[in-house]
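Progress narrative, work stream C.
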Amino acid sequence: MKLLIASDIHGSAYYCRKLLEAYERERAQRMVLLGDVLYHGPRNDLPREYAPKEVIRMLNERSNEIYAVRGNCEAEVDQMVLDFPVLADYMLLFEGDKVIYATHGHVWNEDHLPPMKPGDVLLHGHTHVLRA
């Protein structure tokens, strides 16, 4: 299964559109969102084209294709407007004999690893820095 992985949209309609364009272009079958979907947070500036209601609409149209975890900016009220689960702290995905541990990154990250076996994969965002 081809996954498109993204994090930290922070309510930006501009970046959400870019995400959906990449999703279509890459012909991915699911999106994995690593948190901070709607709110920008009190420490962050407003992102480009901050429009959480537009992001809600765009993502809800794809709700059956999205797996998501909770970021440090998610609140229970976000779940009230999103048609896919966003309040899990982490998720486990399986690829053959490998486990993919997906989380936001504010608790578990490369400097503070969750319980993992050698060869397993950790996915996280939170840093606002593109890395692989």
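Work stream C, second folded protein:
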Amino acid sequence: MKRTLIAAALVAPFLLGACGTAKEAPPTTTEKVAVAEIKAGDEHNDTDIMFLQMLAYHQKQGLQMTTTAASRAKNPELKTLAQAIQATEKDELAMIESWLTGWGADTKVDQAPSLHADHGGLPGTGEAEIKALTTVKAANFDTAFLNLFLAHQHQAMEMSKIALTGGKNEETKKFAERVKQSRQGEIQQMLKLMNG
């Protein structure tokens, strides 16, 4: 319970900061926990599955990077942002895997960095780039992380377009819209940290 309240306190300011020009505010952490309980229903197509599989792989990479940032970042605001993103993406990943399992689709997809490009998106984040975050000099870590993670979260926004334009499942499309909005908010936060 205490951990949930801490996560809620960490995530809420960043998600609320994502409002910008969006029509409605992204969900708060409490709503995200409820979102993880949503059932997607049976109606879906191959695009819904592809989007969720690609995003699941993407989320796992994001969790690797934010785990490193939570321990190595020098800027306390960046540490807090990394922890907030972790809390959000863990909930989302659990939901994604639940939906894929419900549809009888594979949740363990081994994807090359080029897979995003193969499906009309940007090239994916490479494993070597992610590993480099563990060895980059401490003085350069924050800049290296922000540069890599900005591109990574932009990729998630690009992936969301796949479901929004070609998906059939309504819950998947709603989720894709939430991903687009929340990543846009995170990018805004990271740009402020880079320019601050």
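Residues 2-195 form a domain with the Ferritin fold (CATH 1.20.1260.10). No further action is required on this item.
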